[in-house]
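Whiteboard transcription, Tuesday session. T.W. wrote the structure tokens on the left side:
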């Protein structure tokens, strides 16, 4: 995107972002819409892996509650974290405070909570979203959808969703997940945020500063180019990291693989 198009898009985004952040109009409760899943994974090996994850993480109830795409994406997250667990187990304390940055609708909250509850004592799991009142075509907002998942989780003292700027959050944590943070400006503008909110270096530095020791940042990027942008920011900040390469899962196929980076403190 050239400079004048970027300025134009940013100005329009700034106006819309300010309006939705202030008005916060809600149409009511979102209700999760279950869908049949009997033939979702015809492959025997994938079906067996699905059953193993459902049993290991007590996820059978969510199989009944979620729609098809939500269910597939939650299985993807469970698979991702499950395969990461041997490394996490070496790095993390028993009791965890977890923060997820840029949670959007927090559709993967069930997978995050069930995974960490299985292996650790979860003191808190907080989803943070700057643009929580972004409105979807059906009129509901990201905040509305997040509340639907949180109601079904029914862990009000532990699992939260906060419509705040992460840069202003000061509470420490042991785990920080950043799934697809904006590390280049074009995706941020396409999402609908003004360029003034594009502060990837500050974001990474703040996330690392608030991370307790021992603690882990888990970051995924869309493709190798975005991951390289992240790694450049980490090097410039003097933050050590480990490149874990692309992650793929039989449960959901993204058009561009997600690339994984771990930061250990």
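and on the right, the sequence the group agreed on:
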């Amino acid at each position: 995107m050239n400079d004048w198009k970027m300025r134009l898009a940013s100005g329009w985004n700034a106006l819309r972002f300010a309006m939705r952040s202030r008005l916060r109009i809600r149409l009511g409760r979102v209700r999760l819409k279950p869908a049949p899943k009997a033939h979702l994974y015809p492959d025997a090996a994938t079906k067996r892996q699905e059953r193993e994850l459902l049993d290991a993480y007590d996820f059978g109830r969510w199989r009944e509650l979620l729609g098809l795409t939500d269910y597939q994406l939650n299985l993807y997250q469970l698979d991702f974290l499950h395969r990461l667990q041997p490394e996490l187990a070496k790095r993390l304390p028993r009791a965890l405070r977890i923060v997820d940055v840029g949670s959007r609708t927090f559709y993967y909250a069930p997978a995050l909570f069930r995974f960490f509850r299985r292996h650790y004592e979860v003191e808190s799991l907080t989803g943070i979203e700057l643009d929580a009142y972004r409105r979807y075509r059906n009129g509901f907002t990201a905040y509305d959808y997040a509340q639907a998942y949180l109601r079904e989780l029914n862990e009000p003292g532990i699992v939260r969703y906060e419509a705040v700027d992460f840069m202003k959050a000061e509470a420490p944590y042991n785990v920080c997940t950043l799934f697809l943070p904006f590390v280049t400006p074009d995706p941020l503008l396409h999402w609908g945020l003004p360029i003034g909110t594009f502060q990837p270096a500050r974001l990474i530095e703040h996330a690392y500063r608030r991370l307790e020791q021992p603690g882990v940042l888990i970051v995924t990027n869309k493709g190798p180019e975005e991951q390289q942008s992240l790694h450049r920011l980490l090097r410039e900040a003097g933050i050590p990291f480990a490149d874990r390469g692309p992650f793929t899962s039989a449960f959901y196929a993204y058009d561009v693989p997600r690339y994984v980076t771990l930061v250990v403190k």
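Someone added at the bottom: The domain at 3-24+58-264 is CATH 3.40.50.150 (Rossmann fold).
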